Amino acid sequence: MHGVTSATSGASVAAASWRSEFAQADPPDCSRFAVPKDTPAEIVATLNREINAVLADPSLRARLIALGAEPLVMSVADAAKFVADETAKWGKVIRDAGLKAE
Fold it and tell me: How many whole angstroms separate alpha carbon 55 and alpha carbon 22?
């Protein structure tokens, strides 16, 4: 659970507004495999292929689903687009709420 607290009432109103916006959003609960930015494309492709093969295994998929996970098999391009889209979406939520890192 995420929350925002403050000693001032103005911030409490902003926090309430942020919680309202957040409640309407669809935050992903996801785990990803990532590599350093300059990893050679051949290595990225190999890792992607092998991880996707593991995630496609029916017994592993069933176990992950039973644990509440939704295993997704994605191409490198699809995964990069997903991360970029989520970053833009959640960045907007953070900016609109006026949240700042401390």
Answer: 30
